[in-house]
Structure formats: C-alpha cells, structure tokens
Amino acid sequence: MKNMMGLINLHESDELLREIASYRPLGAIPFAGRYRLIDFILSNLINSGITNVGILAAGNSRSLMDHIRSGKEWDLARKKDGLFILPSLQTGHVQGAFPNDLADFFNNLDYIKCSRQRYVLLAGSRMVCNINFESVLRFHTERKADITVLYKEYDGSDTSRLKNATLVETDSDGRVIDMEICPVNARSNKLSMEMYLIDRQLLVDLIDASMSRGGTNVARDCFIKNLASLRMYGYLFSGYLACINSVQSYFEHSRELLNPEVWQELFFANGSIHTKVKDEAPAKYQQDAIVQYSLVANGSVIAGKVENSILFRGVKVHKGARIVNSIIMQKGEIGPGAVLENVICDKDVKITAGKKLKGELNHPVVIGKGTVV
C-alpha cells in the first residue's frame, strides 16, 4: 500500500459527548480499558501498509499529543513518511453537523500536495472497527471511481444506530446517488463510515474549488455538492462497527465489548490494535474480590465486586464496593461500600465510602474528570 496515504480528520462534532469530551478531542476519548478512539484508525492504516499519516488536529489537542507522541507504537516514527500533526487555526469544541474543517484542510494543502502517494484515505476517529484497506483500493480501481465511501448497512428497523450520522443511498450498481448528514428522519439504512478513498490530486482540486466558492465543510461542499459530476461508489463493510457519536452510543458499544466474539473481531480480525505503552503491574485481585463478565486493565487493584463493567488502568475498588454495568476510567477510586450501577466515571474520579449512584441503561450517569463524590 505504498501508493496510499492516510489523513485523519479530527474535526468531529462532540455536542452529544460533552460530558466526556469537554477537555479533549473526540479521538482522545478513552475506550475499551486501555485504548483511545484514534488508536483504531491509526492501527487500521498501519496494518494496511500505509506509512504516511497526517492528523488534522482540532480543539484542545494536548491529551491527544501526549497519547500519540512520536507515533512509535504504530511504527510511524520514521525518517521517510511517518506521522504528521497538521495544526488547526480553530480553538474550542467542534460544534454542529457541519464542522468548519475546510479552512484547515486548505491551510495544510502543501502537505497533501507534497506527498508522493497517489491515493488518500480520509477518515475520522469516531468509527471504531478493524479493517484492511487493501480490498477498498481494489474495489476503487476496479470501478474506476473518483471517490469510494465506506458504509455499514443495518436492518431498517434499527434506527437507533442511524441517528446523528451521515447516511448514503446507492443504486443497483453501488454508485452513491445521495448523502445526508444528520437527517431528522433516516431515509436510508446505510450508515456512512465517514471514510473516503480519493485520488490525491482530485482532493486538492476539490478543496481549492470549494474554498474559493465560500465552502466551509469538506463532506458537504467537496463531496455531496459534486455527487452529480463525480463517480462516487459505496463500499459495503460487513464487519463490526461502533459509531461513537453520543454518550449513549459510547456506553452501549463499550458494553458490547464484553461479548468475546465482538472483542475478538475488533482487536484481531485484520491485525492487532496498538496503543500507548505503559509499564504497569498486572491487575491485582484481593481475597474478597468478585469479578464477572468484565474487562479489567493492568495496574488495577480489586477488593470489591465488579459485574459487566470495564475498568481502565490503575483503578482501585475497595472492599465492599459494588460496580455493575459501569465504566471506570484511569485512576478512578471506588470507596468501601460504594455502589455504582450504569455509571461512567471519567479519569481521576473518587467515589467516597457508602455512596450510591444509579443511572439507566439508556441514560447512564456521567461523573466528570477529577470529581470527588
């Protein structure tokens, strides 16, 4: 895959993820005990043989930069090609269905122009999956497409997975005839994975033309407005996909990872998922610990009861505490006798002795970073 480069666009709306994205970009949100959302697209790119990767930063990216560092964990610390952080002129959160990302693409156009690969794989970070892009490139060249967009097809009755997302509609030949960004009523059951394969020079031309006509959003102004003149095809992805676009979807997809089949596919189907290495001791289970159907990361110390939950690195669960259907992020501490059910605790949260917190499966309680309850 020496003929393809990757471009990760972190201008993703986080309006419905504010509780866990208030001080970090969406790509830096912790997921699955040890990972961040951006780990999945980075790993997919490198597992596909793509070694030139640019990350279009957005908002407060300090936590993201701390996580990625030189890109060594993804084999992107290279003398030739490698990892490139493309700065943004914008600050704050990315709001609305149409983020103003076109200006940042235009300001970093030299990076795209100077790259030696013919094709660009443009993607975000909120679509969590395990995919090899070699088959996508074959599909793209066989159909002589201008743009190939990846999509996941759902049962028509499963409308919950189609909310707050981009939908595509294809004809019998697989050509994309319509695209909608966050429609109120879903008119298609094909969820765009917001991953686009496009000729590098065509992308440069579309960005330049759209910018000169007052455009602000790449998906809308470069792709959707040119559907009639471009040969855009849809590539059906049949594997597991988690679209993280709200607190509810984050909670739901996190709980799906407790299914061994889902875990196996997501982390090993087309290569391993890599993340930042931390040298910590294995999780320690004390004499009174009871852990059932849960993911527990290294560095944790468990003395209470944990059921159907995900515990990140360095979590402490004291004796008598009970955690059910919950997510406890890094260095959380659950005091003696505390009870948590359907709760998401961000990093460094401390729940003191005897406290009881209960949410609902469709509306979990979210405790912000560093909070003491």
Automatic annotation (TrEMBL):
Residues 21-255 form the Nucleotidyl transferase domain. InterPro entries: ADP-Glc_PPase, GlgDAde_trans, GlmU/GlgC-like_hexapep, NTP_transferase_dom, Nucleotide-diphossugar_trans, Trimer_LpxA-like_sf. One of its GO terms (molecular function) is glucose-1-phosphate adenylyltransferase activity. Residues 286-356 form the Glucose-1-phosphate adenylyltransferase/Bifunctional protein GlmU-like C-terminal hexapeptide domain. One of its GO terms (biological process) is glycogen biosynthetic process. Keywords: Glycogen biosynthesis. CDD domains: ADP_Glucose_PP, LbH_G1P_AT_C. SUPFAM superfamilies: Nucleotide-diphospho-sugar transferases, Trimeric LpxA-like enzymes. Belongs to the bacterial/plant glucose-1-phosphate adenylyltransferase family. This is Glycogen biosynthesis protein GlgD. It comes from Sporomusa termitida.
